[in-house]
Amino acid sequence: MTSEFGPTETQADKFDASLIAPTQQDWEIITNSPYTEKPSERCYFIGDLAVLDPRRVISIPTLDDWNYFVQRNAELNEHPTWVIGRYPLITEMAKVDRERACKALNPGELDNWTLSLKSILRGEESVGLFPGSTQEYLIYTDPERTKKVFCEYWESAWNAEKRYASWLRRESPHDFFTLLAALTEISEEKTFSLLEKSDWRLAQEGLAYYREGAIENKYQVRPLITHLTALKKLTPLFERLSREGSSQ
């Protein structure tokens, strides 16, 4: 897999928060997408919408959304081979209401994922998407437990994160930014240490790419929403990166 992002005319080396913030056009694209009205789609990005702007009507889960969540979780739970599909669903709804969403978890499920997290933070897992998605799942469903595990393996944990981040930056930049956004919940300082100066340009390339995709196809809004949300959480770190870079 190689980076899907490419050069754009809108890139700027100098930090400007407005370059990675949602625009009025972004909200029009999101609001007008058929996916924004379907619980079967909304439930996979409603949490990110709530981060972008919790006051918007489309960012607030409806009763239909929660009913779909319960129904779909039950369906996926009945098929062991489908269980992986539950995790992004639970993760996203947990961003909106953690207590309510986590009622969908099976007994001992978080314990099993915690064991996987420990293996990841010891650097025992191969680089790839798996370490990132596992961490995001635990960070948003049980942040306190996840912070304790990170503290247990602090130095080796962040050394492992650097290795995972380097792979994602090269092979799947979209997932790179969503992982870093999740890691800010653990430590903004350590997450900042994972950023490189070139990431500011990469963030803009990604945003231009997903905006273009959403404009061309109104069903392709989820990548745009996810990327905008990650960049919103990382904006203070990009500002610091620019400030410290200009002072050197």
Descriptive account of the structure:
- This protein is an all-alpha fold.
- 66% of the residues lie in helices and 0% in strands.
- It has one domain (17-246).
- The model has no long low-confidence stretch (mean pLDDT 92).
Domain count: 1
Question: First CA to last CA: what distance?
Answer: 35 Å
What is the arithmetic mean of pLDDT? Answer: 92
Give the low-pLDDT segments.
Answer: none
Quickly list its features.
mainly alpha; single chain; 248 residues; globular
What is the gist of this entry?
The chain has helices spanning 24-32, 39-42, 46-52, 63-77, 86-94, 98-101, 109-121, 129-141, 143-152, 154-171, 173-183, 188-194, 199-216, 222-246.
Blueprint of the fold:
Blueprint: H1 24-32, H2 39-42, H3 46-52, H4 63-77, H5 86-94, H6 98-101, H7 109-121, H8 129-141, H9 143-152, H10 154-171, H11 173-183, H12 188-194, H13 199-216, H14 222-246
Helix pairs in contact: 3-14, 4-5, 5-8, 7-8, 7-9, 8-9, 8-11, 10-11, 11-14, 13-14
